[in-house]
């Protein structure tokens, strides 16, 4: 599959990652299938990883083109000055907008869960559409913990559909994938404000349609 570039300027590149592709190579795996290697080939130089999304999640990923841009972007993410909005198709009916402010910690099993003594974590969500047995949410993680959206939504009884790690996997409209998509990203960059959007993938849109 060819690289889908959403934005490119002299210092950064934003690409649209498909579900199933890792951002970086996994343990013992060659880097050829990883997004960072694909971007590096496109640039014909090293791509610097700024942030990651889960392998099963689709959507926007940023890479820096040089070490200085990498430092600037990482500082923006660490300071919470990058606005991220995900689309999540979750199990059950979510009746109203809300927020989840529960501490999260990582466990040796690879899972993240709500636990006393965990790191402060906050996720805000808004109802986009109520469906039959499911709800489409716009989700904004205000902190950047591993699996934060998935673990937080699971904790309130509305796991992301297709999630094999949190909650029971549910077949969704023939789309055997995690129904989580990094949809929008906004940040101040240089003298302007960069606003990026990744359209919903066809399999995600089909899954939504199957619940209407």
* Beta-strand residue fraction: 25-35%
Q: What would CATH call the class?
A: Alpha Beta
Give me the Rg, rounded: 17 Å
The CATH homologous superfamily corresponds to Pseudouridine synthase
CA(first)-CA(last) distance: 30 Å
Largest sheet: 10 strands, mixed
Number of helices in the DSSP assignment: 4
How many structural domains? 1
CATH architecture: 2-Layer Sandwich
Q: What is the name of the CATH topology?
A: Pseudouridine synthase
**Class of secondary structure makeup:** alpha+beta
Helix-strand topology string: EEHEEHEEEEEEHEEH
What tags apply to this protein structure?
212 residues; alpha+beta; Pseudouridine synthase; ten-stranded mixed sheet; two-stranded antiparallel sheet; 18% helix
Strands, helices and their partners?
Blueprint: E1 5-8, E2 12-17, H1 35-43, E3 48-49, E4 58-64, H2 67-78, E5 83-91, E6 98-101, E7 104-106, E8 112-114, E9 122-130, E10 134-141, H3 148-155, E11 180-189, E12 192-197, H4 202-210
In brief:
This protein has 212 residues and is of the alpha+beta class. The protein has a single domain, classed as Pseudouridine synthase (2-Layer Sandwich). The protein has helices at residues 35-43, 67-78, 148-155, 202-210, and strands spanning 5-8, 12-17, 48-49, 58-64, 83-91, 98-101, 104-106, 112-114, 122-130, 134-141, 180-189, 192-197.
